[in-house]
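Input structure tokens:
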């Protein structure tokens, strides 16, 4: 993926415990020496504003906690382009209008500007309640998330 323009979309809310994970990962990535064609974008619940950010990128990597039967801190990579519409609907974000629905809308409105490849780095949440700070399980998953993202950015990544 390194030779193409890639956006890493880090989603979350700092006020909802584990839901802050995407933002924490985004802050960590911003401190790293990433390839010039990689951009980090952090967003909260206003997912429709991100459609302008996504447009023009070849690849999109979404980092978010998800509700779909994962153990707390469990990390998965899902190629959203390879899933059926029904399976994509099963992956629930924690926001009223989730990122996946907004991206789906983007494809309906201006498909030619949307990324060709969309990967979700999803992490099982434990604590989604009002409060600050990640649960221990989700905090411990951060090194694996960062390693996963680094692997996805490698030019010979099997997800290319």
């Amino acid at each position: 993926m390194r030779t193409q323009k890639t956006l890493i979309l880090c989603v979350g809310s700092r006020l909802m415990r584990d839901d802050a994970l995407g933002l924490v990962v985004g802050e960590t990535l911003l401190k790293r020496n990433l390839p010039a064609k990689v951009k980090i974008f952090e967003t909260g619940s206003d997912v429709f504003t991100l459609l302008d950010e996504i447009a023009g990128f070849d690849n999109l990597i979404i980092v978010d906690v998800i509700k779909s039967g994962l153990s707390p801190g469990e990390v998965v990579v899902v190629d959203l382009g390879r899933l059926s519409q029904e399976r994509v609907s099963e992956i629930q974000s924690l926001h009223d209008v989730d990122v996946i629905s907004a991206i789906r809308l983007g494809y309906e409105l201006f498909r030619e500007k949307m990324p060709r490849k969309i990967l979700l780095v999803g992490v099982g949440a434990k604590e989604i309640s009002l409060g600050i700070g990640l649960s221990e399980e989700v905090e411990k998953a951060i090194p694996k998330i960062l390693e996963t993202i680094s692997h996805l950015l490698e030019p010979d990544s099997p997800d290319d």
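The domain at 6-153 is CATH 3.40.50.1450 (Rossmann fold). The chain has six helices and five strands.
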